[in-house]
Design a protein that fits this description.
Elements (H helix, E strand, L loop, with lengths): L1 E3 L1 H10 L4 H7 L5 H8 L10 H8 L7 E3 L3 H11 L1
Antiparallel strand pairs: 1-2
């Protein structure tokens, strides 16, 4: 499963010395608390937000995503090797 790399987003934000309120303001999300819900994964960033994350964080769009491997995919992969 491909999903946004929330750890990368958070670490890059911190590296750039941007606060959650800075991000909320840039992404027009209103409050720090609201942005925090997105960064923690409680809410999902929508497709319109991805280019804005790319621009403010300076991360290529393709690098914003990561491949998450589920337990069932790991088991299936292990069985194929055996």
């Amino acid at each position: 499963m491909i999903e946004l790399d929330l750890r990368l987003i958070k670490s890059r934000r911190i590296e750039l010395k941007l606060t959650q309120q800075d991000m909320a303001d840039y992404l027009d999300m209103g409050s720090k608390a609201n942005y925090s819900r997105y960064e923690s994964g409680k809410y999902a960033f929508d497709a319109n937000t991805i280019p804005m994350l790319h621009k403010v964080l300076g991360i290529p769009i393709t690098k914003l995503f990561t491949q998450k491997v589920t337990d069932s995919e790991t088991i299936a992969s292990t069985e194929e090797v055996s």
